[in-house]
Amino acid sequence: MAYIDAKEIKKSYKVGQIEINALNGVDFTINKGEFVVILGPSGAGKTTLLNILGGMDELTSGSIIIDEVIINKKKEKTLTQYRREDVGFVFQNYNLIQNLTALENVELATQISPNAKRPKDVLKIVGLSDRMNNFPAQLSGGEQQRVAIARAVAKNPKLLLCDEPTGALDTNTGKTVLLLLKQLAKEEQMTVIVITHNQVIAELADRVIRIVNGKVFSQVTQEPKDIKDIAW
Ligand SMILES: Nc1ncnc2c1ncn2[C@@H]1O[C@H](COP(=O)(O)OP(=O)(O)OP(=O)(O)O)[C@@H](O)[C@H]1O
Q1: Residue 45: CB within 6 Å of ligand 1?
Q2: Domain edges within the chain
Q3: How far is ligand 1, taken at its centre, from the CA of residue 214, in Å?
Q4: Is CB count within 10 Å lower at the N or C end of the chain?
């Protein structure tokens, strides 16, 4: 059985009299521990899909099963628990708290999670042992994104959702971040989903789901390329 099974998911927003169909019947499956890229042009529905997978938005119709649980039928309380415990988020702009150190940013996230890893251990995994006591402003963009990844991973989530995680980084720094995400998928058996409009990043994925106009245009599993063989 697939780890994530999305069936015929639809999401529409009503803006005044107009109905916008952000997702218009999306089907896909994802296995545990896969590194998945969801690819699509601007407005395709990627963020909408990520918000639904993260339990932050509701479906209009269809169903999503994650780890044998139908998440779109969850009550608000269990959904809150799902968001806190099972899902980690990484955003394009890191979203770190500026007046807390790297370590404190990670610690803060672990406080609301019962299965949390030790913040110092996770900062070591992302290669920032010696920068733990720095504030975000004292770190480079790539380092800040690694803190944000540590913060997401410290919760010990089953699913890591990343929205354009390399969007604000240069190619080499972006590659370091992607390599880290790939390692986490492999070594921690964490299912990692990256959404991006950058086609090159898709070459690193085990599975590529291409979304166009709120529909799955294609879904392929593939042998991922080595990170040193790609550039953008
Ligand atoms: N809260 C909302 N209210 C109304 N319309 C929305 C809302 N959220 C998204 N949309 C619309 O749904 C469609 C899909 O948007 P979405 O943000 O998911 O696309 P995207 O693929 O993430 O695009 P981008 O790469 O530009 O972020 C767009 O037409 C957008 O305007």
Answers
A1: yes
A2: 32-61+79-229
A3: 10
A4: N
Is the CB of residue 92 less than 8 Å from the CB of residue 167? yes
Closest atom of ligand 1 to CA, residue 44: 21
DSSP state of 224: P
Encode the chain (232 residues) as per-residue pLDDT tens digits: 899 999 999 999 999 999 999 999 999 999 999 999 999 999 999 999 999 999 998 899 999 999 888 887 777 777 888 888 899 999 999 999 999 999 999 999 999 888 899 999 999 999 999 999 999 999 999 999 999 999 999 999 999 999 999 999 889 889 998 999 999 899 888 999 999 999 999 999 999 999 999 999 999 999 999 998 888 8
* Assigned token pair, 78: 């269990």
Q: Which fold has domain 32-61+79-229?
A: Rossmann fold (3.40.50)
CA-nearest residue for atom 29, ligand 1, is 43
Cβ(105) – ligand 1 distance below 6 Å:
no
ipTM confidence: 0.94
Rg (C-alpha) for the chain, rounded Å, is 17
